[in-house]
Specification:
This is Helix-turn-helix transcriptional regulator. The protein is built from 6 helices and 10 strands. The protein is of the alpha+beta class and about 240 residues long. The strands form 2 sheets. It has a 7-stranded antiparallel beta sheet with strand order 3-4-9-5-6-7-8, with no helix packed on it.
Length: about 240
Amino acid sequence: MHETMVRLYEAAKTLKGLETPTDVARALNQSQQTVNNWERRGISQGGMLKAQAEIGCSATWLQTGIPPMEAVKQKSGSSQIEEKLNESSGAPAYNVSRLPDPNIPVGSSPARPVYVVGRANGGLPERIWTDGGYLVGATEEYAVLATDDPHAFLTPIIGTSMAPVYNPGDFAFVEPGTEVDLGDDVLVRLKTGETLLKRLLVRRADGLQLGSYGEPGTLFFKPDEITWMYYVAHPVRRKKIKTRF
C-alpha cells in the first residue's frame, strides 16, 4: 500500500474514528475504485486537499509525513499576538521532527529536468515525442521533478475550470507512461487540436466523461474524437520553473 494511504487511514481513524476503506471513501465522497487506485499509486493532489477539508489531516503531512498530522487551524488575532509574545520571551528551538532523515543516502533522488511543452492556439502537438526521442514543442523552461517516466513533460495551465487544484500561470505535470484510472486527473487532446485538463469520471467503450474541480457539468467525447489521453500527476507552481539559459 502506498505510504500516503497508510497515513490517510491512520488520520481517518485517529481524527474521525473511521475504521474501513469504505468509511473513508464515503467521508471523502469518492468511489471505492478511486480509493483502491490511491492505495496502489498514492493519493492525488485533489484527494489530499479533500482529506484536509473533510477529515482534518494536513495535506502536507499526507504527502511528506512531516508532522503535525492535524491541519493547522487559523488562529484568532488575540491568539496570534499571544503566540508572538511567547516566542519573543524564550530562546528559539529546533523542531527535531523536521530534520532530514539520516538514513536517506545523498544523491539518491530520481529527480531530473522535465521540460515545458508550449500550447499553440490552446492545444498541444498530435505527437509529443518524435521517433528519434525528441520532445516536440519543448521550450527553454523546465522544473526538476522526481519521475521514472522518460516521456514526462509539463504544460501550462490555461483557464480556471480545474481550480483551486490547478491554477492559471502554473503547470500540469504529465506522465504518459502511467496508466489512467477513474478519478485521475488527465490531459486529453481532441482531434480538433484542442487540449483539455480534466478529471476522468467515466470510461466506457463508447467514450469518456470528463469533469472539473472548479466548474459544474461534464463533457462526453467518443473514442474517434480523441487523439490521446495522458495521466496528470500533480500541479507544479510557477516559482518552481527554471530557464536553461
